[in-house]
Amino acid sequence: MAAKTPTRWALLIGVDYYFPGTERPINLRSLNGCVEDVTAAEALLKNRGVQHIVKLTASKATGKEGDPAIKEEDESLWPTRDNVIRELGRIFNSTEKGDLLYIHYSGHGMRRDRMGEPSDRSEGNQLSGAALVMTDVRRGGAYLTAYELGVWVKRMVKENNLRVTVILDSCYSGRGLRDEEDTTNLTARTPEEVDQTQLQSDRDSLVQALGLDDVNNDHGLATRDPEMRKSWLDNPTGCTVVTACGVNEKAHETHFGETSAPHGVLTHWILKTLCKYAPDAWLPTCGRIRDTVIGEIAKMVPLVSQTPTIHGQENHEFFGQHSLPRRPICKVIKHDLERDVVVLNIGRAQGVSLNAVYDVFSFGKDGEWDLRWVSSSSQAAEQVRVTKVFNFRCEAVPITTKENRSLALDEGSSAVLRTWALPSDYPVQLDDTVSDMSPSIRQTLDMYLRQTPGLFLLEGETTQEARFLVWLDTDRRFRIADENGSPLSRVPAIPMDDGDKNESPKSGVAKLASVLRHLARYLSVRDLRNRDPRTSLALGNFRCTVTNSDGEDVPKGPSGCYEVRESEVFYIEIKNVRLMRPVYVNLVCTAASWQIMKLNRLDESTGTEVWASEPYVHEMNMIIPETQKEDCQEGVYDLIKAFVYTGPHPPSWDELTLPKLPVDASAIAFHSTSDPVEPIISNLQKREGSFREPGPPLPSHAPEKWGVLEFWIHTTPK
């Protein structure tokens, strides 16, 4: 039986007009582009066939005395807290399992707590204490707090199994200034004040939210610091939240020259991006949308400086039902027709191993990547398997014969990783607690594991040592330990039977394989070094220091790690002390959350150019997410790796990146070798004046050398 097509729902909230009043000591200037935002969103959604759309708006009109007034007459469609909650309840009662919900808010944001310094805000705890400013708050209406909105969205995800996308085109820092200077034509969507006023409407709203919250159901706290309750939206599952800016930035609205009305910067570029896709096509992931918007905002500098952020799953289709792995793009730099071998511009230094498989596409030859996206595995693509690996190149042979190919493997074509391969074996051992697992399920697990060359299940008597040990806890959940039997921290427990057949890609066995695949890839990158003396860049060419904000050396502990406190600013400095040619530095963090992320600026994919006279300095500020602090009383260990390169062709190191491992097993997605993959395409433009004048180019035959500098950081909670 074919899967049911999910019904799509949308709740659009736009607030331009704010009623005057004296109930709260705040100054709210009316806005101009919020209703235009949600009206444009409504048009796009209708074009894509979304039928269940509710729009709550407050538009500005001119009153009898010439003062601003509200335009809409129907009070039931005003963006008040009560009207929003009414519509959320209606959607909750009307939706079915698997339906999709889109929530879009454009308007002012307000902090209901004082944040203190930027370093005081923990990762994963940024929306807590924030609120959406409803049209009637100054005359006594309640705010819609991030906590209350999170309670409702969580109910929809947990009880109705909805997939929810939330767009918040507002500020929530409490640090922004109202700015309507004619020289920029920009308006910020955040008041200067922090409103800690508690009205009866606020207390009533909190009591109602507490009654629905299965975690914070404590009515006795309704009058004590109610706005600081943690919002589920900070770290959601089954939901993606896109915010307009970072916690210490401002969201803006401005004219884009296409209409007489302004739009929010975030909303404009999201809708502009989505309009490129046919109404029946898959949409990009939320992560791809975020990256595209960041790229467009970069072109607006210095007029606009805001960085959209994502909470939740960024690899999920925007307002869709598909989860997609996101992989960087590399290039075909040669096709040897005689041997029928292609050469890719990535190699061992970027984690490539024998038998890795890449999809090759014809797009990207002319730089037109921003309009293209692999939305289906049925698109014209050829697969190639890696047969030889060099430092920054690899050779791969096509899997299909010439006669059966759908496209030519031309120079300049783009390639995307389909299947990882590991540089060494990562055997998995099941202990006696899994003894009742049927042979067929064991075979299924081994099949899933072997989709990643180097990862497999140990069976029978063997002298080979396992890299991972798997057991079942008393709740029949899969747990994973290292080769010494020590449980791996911050790895989710996976229910063995989650209601699906074990052969299903959604089963516990499939999710276990997905986590093991992730862990093996992480460890292989963490251990990546250049062990070839012919191409190794001598680390003695560099002087490395780690200092605090006072310029003093950060001390090392007994384990050799640099000891820092959470939120403590420190600096990693790498100085080229011997080489008279440029060195390119790429800083990569292999984090305790099983994530691998680049720390260089997004527009520096090939690294930061460093000459002998100019040290590379990177400011660091380690944060322990609120959700992990209970398990991190003794601190966390992160490895910062600096990949240093010298040569004529600085490479990209994007291939090393790896997303966070979900802390909730329900958020784990298993991707088979036939699932579609979304390329991570950077269309960021280099900002004018952001780079130093380049030195003399190296000859094309200059030797390529590289090395890895490592900094272990031990962060203890504050």
Describe this structure in words.
- It comes from Aspergillus felis.
- Belongs to the peptidase C14B family.
- The chain has 718 residues and is α+β, with helices and mostly antiparallel strands.
- Mean pLDDT is 83; it is low at 115-124, 173-183, 217-227, 364-378, 499-503 and 683-698.
- The strands form eight sheets. A six-stranded mixed beta sheet has the order 2-1-5-9-11-14, with helices on both faces.
- The chain has four domains: 8-312, Rossmann fold, CATH 3.40.50; 326-419, Beta Barrel (Thrombin, subunit H), CATH 2.40.10.340; 426-515, Rossmann fold (3-Layer(aba) Sandwich), CATH 3.40.50; 539-716, Immunoglobulin-like, CATH 2.60.40.
- It contains eight helices and 35 strands.
- Uncertain runs are 115-124, 173-183, 217-227, 364-378, 499-503, 683-698
Let me know the number of strands: 35
Total of DSSP H or I helical runs spanning 4+ residues: 8
Overall mean pLDDT stands at: 83
The CATH architecture of the largest domain = 3-Layer(aba) Sandwich
- What do we call the CATH topology of the largest domain? Rossmann fold
Give the domain tally. 4
Order of strands across the main sheet: 2-1-5-9-11-14
Largest sheet: 6 strands, mixed
* % residues in beta strands: 25-35%
GO molecular function, one term: cysteine-type endopeptidase activity
Keywords: Hydrolase
Protein name: Peptidase C14 caspase domain-containing protein
Domain Peptidase C14 caspase: 7-278
